[in-house]
Every structure is written in structure tokens, then in C-alpha cells.
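Posting this for the archive.
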Amino acid sequence: MTTTDTAPLSVVRRPAFTSPFFRWSVAFAVLLGILVASLLAGDLLLSPAEVWAVLSGRASDFTTTVVLSWRLPRAIAGIAFGAALGAAGAIFQSLTRNPLGSPDVIGFNTGAYSGVLLTLLAVPAVGFLPLAAASLLGGLATAAVVIALTARSGMAGRTFILTGIAVSALLASVNTWLVYKTDTATATAGSLWAAGTLDNTRWVNLAPALAALALLALPVVVAATRLRFLALGDDLATALGLRVRTSRFALIVGAVAFTAITTASAGPIMFIALAAPHLARATLPRERPVLASALTGALLLSGADWIAAHAFAPTQLPVGAVTVTIGGAYLVLTLLRRGR
């Protein structure tokens, strides 16, 4: 009688740092760390105990004003606007099936800024809601033009990206002409805004933007669940029962609206929408690409704003200058890696 030795099956366990929960936790922890660092740093250096005293209502009036009225709105804006841009970038890269398919490359940022400039020229002292509406109309109009020019080839392909770049270049020249044609005060404000900045963020202009983003978040998240079907192609998605045109239109409107609200509040901030989806795919689980890209965008913009505000103190840079520098370096490195 022969016996066969059977060894027990060994379970291969992945290291803890590769688990999705661990990676999500680290990303949220880093974002919380940036938020705390933004509340601590500045001309008036504060300790964590002093910030906690402010949050618990035991600090002086001046310290409370510094933290809650000046620093906290800017820190929240960096997180919210970065998340909006990251989500918009993930949606457009999925729809175009192109790693360069982001609102800033295609020109929707530039179109949204054109709407803001035209409104400022007509009514210099306009509030946030008209600016947000003009920014949304400018972004949607740009999207409509690009889609109309590429109706035959569709959104997936190089033609869509190249057309968007061309339209963006034309709009950029128009924006430059509008700035030069206006009065000095409006031109100065427009030029500073064009760089993308969170310097003057206060609750009075941040609250409407946060409310608009919150209202858009749920329908965009619901619509984003259809991206996996759209990625299969129009024919197969239609065969699976998906209304392709309706779904694509809802996603485009939502992504452009995210971009437009951010542009109306902080100016056209470049490269966050482009880089966030790439970094999210490399560092976070891919089961929820839009959420991962939103979290990565929040990390990128809030970190870039901290650098802009404190790395070169007492000089403060527009956050757009930092994102362009970091994003440009990242894009060059990505191209070199793919070339190799």
C-alpha cells in the first residue's frame, strides 16, 4: 500500500502595505497632514495645541480669526478644488481613452476663463454666482465646439485632443487680447487670476463654490459608474442597455462644471486634472478611478498651495505657477519613461 504525502496548501499573503485599505488610509492621512500643516504655518506660527484650542473655542479672538477666517478657507479650497479637477481629469481621460485627455489640455479651462473675462469686462464688480455661470457657459461652449469639430472621428482618438489643443490656443490669444483691451485694474486682476491662485480665498466666496460642488458630486459619482461600460465601446455599451449619448453628455457636463466652478473661484489651475489620474492609477486601487483621482487631485493641489504659500516666504507664489512647474516636470519624466 502506497501513501502519498500531501503538504498543506500555503496561503500567499500580500504585504499589508499593498492592501487597498492601507493605501486609501495612507492617502487620507497625508491629506490630513497637509491640512494641519496649512493651519500651522504662516507669518504667525502656531503649534498643534494652539490650533486645537481654536477648534475647541478656547483661543484668543485674533488666533481664531487667523485660523478659521484666513487659513482654513484656503486649505479647504485646495482640497475641494483639487478633488474636482482630479475627478474631471479622470472622466475625460476615460471618455477620450487618451492619457492627455484632460480639461486643461483640451481647452475647457481656457474656455471657462474666457467666460469669466467677458463677464468681468461687462460688470467688473460682479459676484460669484454670475462668474460661475459665465465660467460654466464658457467651458460648455468650448466643449460643444470641440465635439462638433470632431463629430466624425468621435472623442476617442488623437483628433479630439489635437482639436482641443488648437481651440485652446485660439482662446488663449483671445483672452490675452481681452486683458489688454480692458482698464488697468481689471487687467491686473485678470492677469493674477489667470495664473491660478487661492491667496484671497474667504468663506464669503468659498461657500457658494463648495455648495455647487456638493450638489454636483452625487450625480457625477452616479454617472461615473457607467464609465466602465463606455470604455467597452459604443456598440457593446449599447448592447448592454446603456444610453451612450445620454451618459456621455451627463459626464461631460459634470466634468466641465467641476472645472468651471474651480476656474470661477481660483482661475485656471493647470496640470492637476492631467496628472492626478496617472498618479492615482499608480498608487491607489483602480476599482474606483474617479474617487481615486479626486483624492489624488486634492493631495496635489493642497500640497502645491502649501509650497506656493510657505516654501518661498515671505514671497507668495500663485498656486498655478507651482502646479505648472510640477506638472511640466512630471509630464517630461512620463514621456521619457515611455520613450525608453
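The radius of gyration is 22 Å. The longest helix spans residues 61-96.
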